[in-house]
Amino acid sequence: MARAVAVDVLLGLAVVVVLAGSAGVLLMRDAYQKLHYVTPVSMVAPVLAGLAVLVQSGWTAASGQAWLVVAIMLITSPFLAHATVRAIWIRDDRGAGRDLARAGQVGERHDGQRL
Predict the structure, then answer these.
(1) Which pTM was predicted?
(2) Cα–Cα distance measured from residue 16 to residue 19, given in angstroms and rounded to the nearest whole number
(3) Any long-range contacts for 54-59 (C-beta under 8 Å, 24+ apart)?
(4) Given pLDDT bands bounded at 50, 70 and 90, which one contains residue 103?
(5) pLDDT value at position 91?
(6) How far is CA 99 from each of CA 76, 79, 82, 94, rounded to the nearest angstrom?
(7) Taking Cα atoms as reference points, which of 47, 44, 68, 66 lies closest to residue 57?
(8) Contact 51, 10 (CB under 8 A)
(9) Each residue of 81-96: pLDDT tens digit?
(10) Which of 19, 43, 48, 91 has the maximal Cβ count within 10 Å?
(11) Distance CA 15, CA 93 (A)
């Protein structure tokens, strides 16, 4: 009985984190601000779900697989966030000139100005 309550509480907390992150994404204006609200969804919610699996089934193959997925998400999430911010930065033409100049490909932007 206590185990079922603990699993329900952990999964409920994961749902609250996802809903709060979703609300933050909806309410923020630019992509940089929105990305801050995606981070708890990709870092905190999987840990809570992994804990729920661990509480429910103990140390089994299923919980080991769940924690492997959680570990992969925790390792890759910061890299994905960095790549996303970099892509947004380049798309907004703030970084395009610097990156092209570094690569030796100075040319013209889409609005006709020289990079």
Answers:
(1) 0.74
(2) 5
(3) 55/3, 55/6, 55/7, 55/10, 56/3, 56/7
(4) low
(5) 84
(6) 24, 19, 16, 10
(7) 66
(8) yes
(9) 999 999 888 888 766 5
(10) 48
(11) 37
Question: What is the mean predicted confidence (pLDDT) over 99-103?
Answer: 59
For residue 16 the two structure tokens come to 């609250």
What length does the chain have? 115
Sign of the alpha-carbon dihedral angle for 64, 68, 71, 73: negative
- Contact assessment for residue 70 and residue 54, using Cβ atoms and an 8 Å cutoff: no
Give the per-residue pLDDT at 62.
87
What type of residue sits at position 82?
H
State the sign of the Cα–Cα–Cα–Cα dihedral 94, 97, 100, 102.
negative
- At 97, is the secondary structure helix, strand, or coil? helix
Query: Tokens representing 107?
Result: 């040319």
Contact 97, 115 (CB under 8 A): yes
Q: For the chain, percent helix, then strand, then coil, each to nearest 5? A: 80, 0, 20
